[in-house]
Amino acid sequence: MTVRLAARDLTFRYDASTALLEHWSAEFHAGEVVAVTGPSGRGKSTLLYLLGLMLRPASGQVLLDGHAMQARRDHERAAARATQFGFVFQDAALDPSRTVLDNILETTLYRGERRRDRVSRAEGLIEQMGVGLRRDAKPGQVSGGQAQRIALCRALIGNPRVLLADEPTGNLDPASSDVVVEAMHDQASRGAAVVVVTHDPVLVARCDRKLEL
Ligand SMILES: Nc1ncnc2c1ncn2[C@@H]1O[C@H](COP(=O)(O)OP(=O)(O)OP(=O)(O)O)[C@@H](O)[C@H]1O
């Protein structure tokens, strides 16, 4: 199996306090959906930020397709994030001043694709996720569950090689959760490594593997 993303010997602390992660290693394969579980406050979201190149560890490496990303400069890490990663934040983190459609399109702005093509892909995703919204709705007008699925659309539209999702089914009923799980497996079947932080046992059971933090 191809190792898409690897953590090697990661140590991380926010301040002088005890380390949240200490010499932590794991591999995430192309085609695989991995659940990360563990008690609240253990550092699961932090791990996703490290894997997603938003934080730098005190020591250790994150490797994307075998390339060490730690020593790269900020703009190179940002470029990798924009082109290779999709991220679903725990609170969806939609921009309230822009429409749902523009929130989803945000990550595709610099890809040199025609707007018409990007819009039709976004609309396909909105439909697939069963969000049931006018595309000119603003995030203030959507429910928590709709916001989560919109955030997933935004993460998927760039066809990421790595999809990192923090509690993506936290606000969802079982039918909507199902759609989200299917979408994550679809992305894995396109060759992505998918890492999902969750407390939801139903979601864990539908992942290929579980890592306990
Ligand atoms: N920016 C920050 N600065 C300082 N401490 C932080 C920061 N972000 C998180 N922490 C602390 O780090 C610890 C781990 O937080 P994190 O959100 O990674 O845990 P988690 O396992 O995802 O928790 P939950 O399951 O409740 O979402 C917590 O004690 C939290 O208070």
Describe this structure in words.
By secondary structure, the protein is an alpha/beta fold. It has a single domain (3-212), classed as Rossmann fold (3-Layer(aba) Sandwich), CATH 3.40.50. The chain has seven helices and nine strands. It has helices spanning 44-51, 74-84, 100-105, 115-128, 144-156, 174-189, 201-205; strands spanning 3-12, 21-29, 33-37, 59-64, 67-68, 85-88, 162-166, 193-197, 209-212. A five-stranded parallel beta sheet has the order 6-7-8-3-9, with helices on both faces. A hairpin with a 2-residue loop joins strand 4 (59-64) and strand 5 (67-68). The longest helix is centred in the last third of the chain and has 16 residues, at 174-189. The protein starts with a strand and ends with a strand. Bound molecules: adenosine-5'-triphosphate. Residues 14, 20, 40-46 line the site of adenosine-5'-triphosphate.
Tell me, rounded to a whole number, the average pLDDT. Answer: 92
Question: Class by helix and strand content?
Answer: alpha/beta
Strand content: 15-25%
Q: Helical element count?
A: 7
The largest sheet, given as strand count, sense and whether it forms a barrel, is: 5 strands, parallel
Query: What distance lies between the first and last C-alpha atoms, to the nearest angstrom?
Result: 23 Å
Name of the top-level CATH class: Alpha Beta
Largest beta sheet: what is the strand line-up? Answer: 6-7-8-3-9
GO cellular component, one term: plasma membrane
Protein name: ABC transporter
Domain ABC transporter: 5-213
Family: Belongs to the ABC transporter superfamily.
